[in-house]
Design goal:
The chain has 404 residues and is α/β, with parallel strands linked by helices. The protein is 30% helix and 16% strand. The chain has helices at 39-48, 54-64, 79-88, 160-174, 202-213, 233-242, 256-262, 271-279, 304-313, 339-351, 375-390, and strands at 32-33, 89-90, 95-101, 107-112, 118-126, 129-133, 137-138, 156-157, 187-192, 225-229, 246-250, 290-296, 319-325. Helix 1 (39-48) crosses helix 2 (54-64) and helix 9 runs parallel beside helix 10. The longest helix is centred in the last third of the chain and has 16 residues, at 375-390. The chain is globular. It starts with 31 loop residues before the first strand and ends in a 14-residue tail after the last helix. Keywords: 4Fe-4S, Cytoplasm, Disulfide bond, Iron, Iron-sulfur, Metal-binding, Methyltransferase, rRNA processing, S-adenosyl-L-methionine, Transferase, tRNA processing. Disulfide bonds join 133-370. Residues 377-404 are annotated as: Disordered. It is found in: Cytoplasm.
Amino acid sequence: MTDTTIMKTAVTPDPAPGDAAALNNPDAEGREDLIGLSREQLAGRLTAMGEKSFRAGQVWAWLYNRGIRDIDGMSNISKETRAKMRERFHISRPQVSRELTSADSTRKWLLKYRDGQEAETVYIPDDDRGAVCVSTQVGCTLTCRFCHTGTQMLVRNLSAGEIVGQFMVARDSYGEWPTPNETGRLLSNVVVMGMGEPLFNYDATVTALRILSDPEGLALSKRRITLSTSGVVPRMYDLGNDVGVNLAVSLHAATDDVRDVIMPINKKWPLKELMQACRDYPSASNARRITFEYIMLKGINDSDADARQLARLVKGIPCKFNLIPFNKWPGSDFECSDWSRIERFSDILAEQGYSAPVRKPRGRDILAACGQLKSESQRERLSQLKARRAAGIEDDGHGDAAAQ
């Protein structure tokens, strides 16, 4: 089934001479993209050019500390070496198709990739800092019934460079180059909570997380990176061992009966297995608690009994809850729980010793809130396609399959 198949993007190996298919995001001239190569891959490419090992560190710093977009700007590298690099490499960014800023200062970017596919990235401010929410897939293979993004068919996985590039676009937008120190950052956190299930695109996501957390580049502490999964249990074990970033779990129900209905992935990995994977997550502690995300659905999962069962379910796991008011979207059968009911639910969890704040909805006016990503762009393309067809205009071949 498509909702439970673990999708992988293989880490790019060092390509054989003339093997264009093995290159990382080649451009029209067949030059390989430097963005998205792991540090080891970058070193291998440069060594193959006859460069000394230290060169990789210099290039890495230009790419991810300085945010440079042109090889010629690498001023501490000789002109001869830069010329050789220009023949082999390019530096990419996703194209910004649209940038929108909400009344509450949330900012959203619709990003277009080389093949014309699009994904969305959101910056969520919080006082003098905030988090960049990145996507890992174009569309989503899951069918969570409360999520508008989940109604949009999966098109493809994003590469490591396409994931990292989202954060770099956000830095471009706010002018946050070179990498500031820990206390001076506006873009202080990354949450892997955008379009797609990140653990279904495991290798590319992990490579991107390693690039984001490299101390000589973008330099985000692993404590400031949170990955959210719907419960891909085998990959949760891998994630904890491989990178150890903060873990968030889209839980949304306290029983298998309810979760089976609203999150079909639960039929593959039910709550017992999911909770055990959370208990075993290596970096979980009272200082780094797992976050359980819980969307509040009126009459579905919001009773006093649900709250008490939830507390029993997570007993023994260092955790906290993030209660999310449901964001209504066209065609959805669900309603958001009444505010008094949400507060009561939060109070019950607090009485059981769990932190359970209610997430403040952000960016609703630009469709940047939880579960709303890419909806606007797809509706617009569908409307344009229908208008062209009504006018007898043939499709130009650039319509979005996911919008049809």
